[in-house]
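ENTRY TYPE: paired fold submission
RECORD: A
CONTENT: sequence, then structure tokens
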Amino acid sequence: MIQFIGLVGGALVILSALFGVTSALLYGSRFPWWEHPDGRHLFAYQVVIGSVLGLWAGRLIVTGQLTDSGVGPWPWIRLAAFGAIAWVLGWRLLIITRAWREQRRERIKEDPDDGDHLP
């Protein structure tokens, strides 16, 4: 049972990393984050979170420690913590995706001829 909990916790670390990196990439490539201090901060924050989680997930995979989350309560703590992190980063990814779609719809309304050339 503990090995299964360790595997699910490891999978949640990887899922969190995927969500974190994808959020940073989408926000960085689809929004003018450089135009405002809040946008620069948000982009930097997302890059740091995605990078840290990506490094952690890569280490788990490369070293074969995907299911090894320690002894005692640590497997359960990792499961709960990364379940919450994956949930929140998935939520952020959904928000970014919706905002990008809304921004795209607004651009198409403003200039219908330019809608086919949007990224």
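RECORD: B
CONTENT: sequence, then structure tokens
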Amino acid sequence: MKDFATGPARDARGQPLRRNAPADALAEDARVPMHDAAGAAPGGGTPPDPWSDEEVVLLHWRLLQEVAALADPGTPLEAKLDTLRWVFTERDKDAGPFSFASCVRVAGCSPLSPIPYCGPVDVEEIRDRIRHGVRRWLAATLERYPAWVREAVARHPGWVEVQLARDPQWINEQVRSRTVQGDLFA
């Protein structure tokens, strides 16, 4: 059975997995060989065992655990933004197999779910509850950073998001470089 430990899902380098990463990058990060059209692994090996229904349901539940990390001030800003993008994605993507809405439906209604049966749940109501806490949760995370980081996020959130999408350690590297050399404009 696959390991579904709590905490953000990580790749082989210890970086949080991205839900929107290309399939080949995820396969490389997870050290899973890509397969040809006939299902054969490179080098003629056999493909890995298919996932059981229970493992697929547990994966849906495990993805929902990322939402709980939003309230933790220690969760990196980039991980929170990634989770929020997943939760608040376009509604036309709600039917996708591992969308937030799909994960809520599967975890709440499947008899294989690790939580008690909930029945159909209003996904928009859950999104509203998350929306209600977002400002407080992001502020708690940003309090861990110097004032100039908080100001940059407040003034240029789109730019900061692009930087974090390129390199999840971008803020940490900026803080480290300013700590070592100091702010040249201060």
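NOTES ON RECORD B: Residues 1-13, 16-34 have pLDDT under 50 and may be disordered. The radius of gyration is 19 Å.
STATUS: closed
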